[in-house]
Amino acid sequence: MTSLSRRAFVTAATASLLVSCAGKATTTPAAAHPRSTPPPASPTARAPHALARSVPVSLRVPAIGVDTPLIRLGLASDGTVRVPPIAAHDKAGWYENSPTPGRTGPSVILGHVTVGSYGDGVFRHLADLRKGDRIETRLENGSTAGFTVTAVRTVAKSEFPTRQVYGDVDRPELRLITCGGARTGDGYLDNVIVFAALSSATP
Description:
By secondary structure, the protein is mostly beta strands. It has one domain (3-28, 51-202): Sortase (Sortase, Chain: A, Beta Barrel), CATH 2.40.260.10. It is 8% helix and 39% strand. A hairpin with a 4-residue loop joins strand 7 (134-139) and strand 8.
């Protein structure tokens, strides 16, 4: 990461990301919650090496039928993380100040569970993922970073586990985030967060 990207990523990591399915992301002070701590991944015989930096262009999650192009998401003028636009052909988005998938650290991808009057969003079934499910990200340089789900958490937006989502890790990991739980007005009370670790890397 460049120093500018690192500062932007740290800025986001100091506050809780709330993915609003009305099309806006807001922040609130972080709050620790013991239930939101992801369990350690099962040990493997040989962990794959981290990949070279390359922007992700698509995401596949076969278990829930997701096959989507990825757009790039930055920070809004108020310092919050942008979310994908509300559109009929909904796409997920990679937060460009997080590591690219396959690099050491937590790469963050956001998507909607619903998209207003258009209905279901690209991450409508994200909460159905289970430990061991596979996630694939295709990178701009043609390589593929494959991840295995280690945990799926539904947490109150007021208790978003900021450090566990954005905090430093010593291996390549992935976070998929959307809304969940009960609806209130035009939003949702919870966030669904998928934690995954790199399990394969194809040049």
